[in-house]
From TrEMBL:
Protein's recorded name: 4-hydroxyphenylacetate degradation protein
Catalysis: reaction(s): (2E,4Z)-5-hydroxypenta-2,4-diene-1,2,5-tricarboxylate = (3E,5R)-5-carboxy-2-oxohept-3-enedioate; (3E,5R)-5-carboxy-2-oxohept-3-enedioate + H(+) = (4Z)-2-oxohept-4-enedioate + CO2
NCBIfam families: HpaG-C-term, HpaG-N-term
One of the protein's GO biological processes: 4-hydroxyphenylacetate catabolic process
Length: 427
């Protein structure tokens, strides 16, 4: 089944208590006002009974949690109505390396292969104070209650479905306490809760042979991968790639509309070269990286910057809203693009050139990005990397026609509509 697994950080009281002082200092300044969403992409998905390979040099921590399984399309659902959109619940493990920062997406810590096993679902009537128990090698190591979450399942469905349409089979992980449980090769971990099938996983140094995972292809995106763009947002160019993941609900195609939320000041277009992975890539060197590229396309990585908070920047509310990622479906084969690091990118608003740059100015080039990601996770055929945007951001408004273009790759047109126009088009 194709499904998106959304997860929320900092939803357990013990986490916000532990981070309280840090969240009043730089770069955070204030505690988060909205849920801090992240995505567990398909390479992390595993099932009950699967063996999970642990990274060799870093300590991994278990994060037993409850997964809410969505039963029907959910869009702008009020918390009071959310129960009708829940098909059931399952136990899950939001595995992670140590959480040292909440400032940028913790892809390296949370999105490693196998870092999200989810058990079999079951209906449950009341999850308001469900005890989630973690046992390692038969010994109880942790017990926590969903009563200690800041937001319950209904409130999270309401918050997420406000900007992201959820589909049947999508999953929301409710969060974990600050204290996590170490897991080591050889461990048997069982997550239990009354009324749900337990989730058993064996941990090892060896990965089991994986078939092509089910689930949506992952669209990785780069933040601030052009130094001139970083400067215009008053950032320094990054020293390590800033990777985030765009949720599938945000994707649209050529000649589609993108919705500008009401009452915002900054909806920015971003023309980006997109690399499409052609074959499974794990621990690929820079020298070999291009052999794993099927071809190239382009996207417009819209951002509603009013919604930026200094947590998991950029949060899904900024970049993964419905309709905010127009993507050209046609992929130009790698053989047709002799040098992906010398392509002109342009954005036109109502025919006027507003953004212009060249892929030669990427801070981290395509081979580097493939080598970097494949060092800690497996890239699968169909996965994509949106490589960041150059300088030249400007606000767009309902009625604007936005064209992004990359020489030799294509031209992608879309139109901005207001929320009201969009709602009317759905009737
Ligand atoms: O959103 C921001 O302000 C910066 C950012 C992401 C930027 C891009 O998507 C881009 O440079 O293409 C971030 O990760 O904070
Ligand atoms: Mg971008």
């Amino acid at each position: 089944m194709k499904r998106s697994v959304f997860a929320v950080a900092l939803n357990h009281r013990s986490q916000t208590e532990a981070w309280h002082d840090r969240f009043h200092q730089s770069p955070y300044q204030t505690p988060p006002k909205t849920p801090v969403w992240f995505i567990k992409p398909r390479n992390t998905h595993r099932r009950d009974g699967d063996t999970i390979a642990l990274p060799s040099r870093q300590q991994t921590f278990s994060g037993g949690t409850l997964a809410v399984i969505i039963g029907q399309t959910a869009r702008k659902v009020a918390a009071a109505d959310a129960a009708a959109f829940i098909q059931g619940y399952a136990l899950a493990n939001d595995l992670s390396l140590a959480e040292e920062s909440f400032y940028r997406p913790a892809i390296k810590a949370k999105c490693r292969d196998g870092f999200c096993p989810i058990g079999e679902p079951a209906p449950l009537k009341d999850i308001s104070a469900l005890e989630i128990i973690t046992e390692v090698n038969g010994v109880g190591k942790q017990r926590w209650s969903t009563a200690d979450l800041h937001r319950n399942a209904a409130e999270l469905i309401a918050a997420l479905s406000d900007f992201a349409t959820l589909q049947a089979g999508d999953v929301i992980l409710l969060g974990t306490p600050q204290q996590r449980i170490e897991v080591n090769p050889g461990d048997e971990v069982v997550i239990r809760a009354a009324g749900l099938p337990p989730l058993h996983n064996h941990f090892s140094t060896q990965a089991e042979a994986q078939t092509q995972p089910e689930g949506h292809a992952t669209l990785f995106a780069l933040g601030l991968n052009y130094a001139d763009h970083a400067a215009e947002l008053e950032f320094k160019a990054p020293e390590e790639p800033l990777v985030f993941i765009k949720a599938p609900n945000s994707l649209t195609g050529d000649h589609c509309v993108s919705v500008r939320p009401d009452n915002v000041d900054y909806m920015h277009y971003e023309a980006e070269l997109v690399v499409v992975i052609g074959k499974t890539a794990r621990n690929v060197s820079r020298g070999q990286a291009l052999e794993y590229v099927e071809g190239y396309t382009l996207c417009n990585d819209y951002a509603v910057r009013d919604y930026l908070e200094n947590y998991y920047r950029p949060n899904l509310r900024v970049k993964s809203r419905d309709t905010l990622t127009p993507l050209l479906p046609a992929v130009v084969p790698r053989s047709a693009i002799p040098d992906a690091q010398n392509l002109q990118l342009k954005t036109f608003i109502n025919g006027e050139l507003r953004q212009s740059g060249n892929t030669r100015d990427m801070v981290f080039d395509v081979p580097f990005l493939i080598a970097y990601l494949s060092e800690f996770m497996t890239l699968q055929p169909g996965d994509m990397i949106a490589t960041g945007t150059p300088k030249g951001l400007a606000d767009v408004n309902p009625g604007d026609e936005v064209v992004v273009e990359i020489e030799g790759v294509g031209r992608l047109t879309n139109r901005i509509v207001s929320e009201q126009q969009f709602e009317e088009s759905l009737k």
